[in-house]
Design a protein that fits this description.
Strand content: 15-25%
Mean pLDDT: 95
Structural class: alpha/beta
Strand order of the largest sheet: 2-1-3-4-5
Number of strands: 5
Length: 133
């Protein structure tokens, strides 16, 4: 029996204007056979949650360069738990200071900073979604 492709939402919360890195990740996920919903730039947490719910995604990746990653990640996690979507795989990438990584991991996020390997990101999603299915 063929499994459905992994559905991943990639979003740029807040006022970040630079989205080249997010688009590179989207392309890698598509090349790996995943279905990707890229919401684009300037998304609110509610917009991201609504899209994730409507698209029935198994993973969400945020790309944050503004330094507001802890705020966005905390609020996104809270909203997902409220909607009983707590099993969604969560990732954050971009400019993430090492000092913030432990807190993000406590919130349940895998952290892929600037320059992370695309293969590492793809494999993480595949392994984590399979584990949760």
């Amino acid at each position: 029996m063929a499994r459905n492709p992994i559905r991943v939402l990639v979003a740029k919360p807040g006022l970040d204007g630079h989205d080249r890195g997010a688009k590179v990740v989207v392309k890698a996920l598509l090349d790996a056979g995943m279905e990707v919903i890229y919401t684009g730039r300037h998304q609110t947490v509610d917009m991201i949650v609504n899209a994730a719910e409507q698209e029935d995604v198994e993973a969400i990746g945020l790309s944050v360069l503004s330094g507001a990653h802890l705020d966005y990640c905390s609020r996104l996690k809270s909203r997902l738990v409220e909607l009983e979507m707590g099993s969604v795989v969560l990732m954050v990438g971009g400019t993430i200071p090492e000092a913030d990584v432990p807190r993000l991991r406590e919130l349940g996020y895998a952290v892929f900073g600037t320059g992370s390997s695309l293969t590492e990101i793809v494999n993480y999603i595949k392994n984590e979604v399979e584990r949760r299915r």
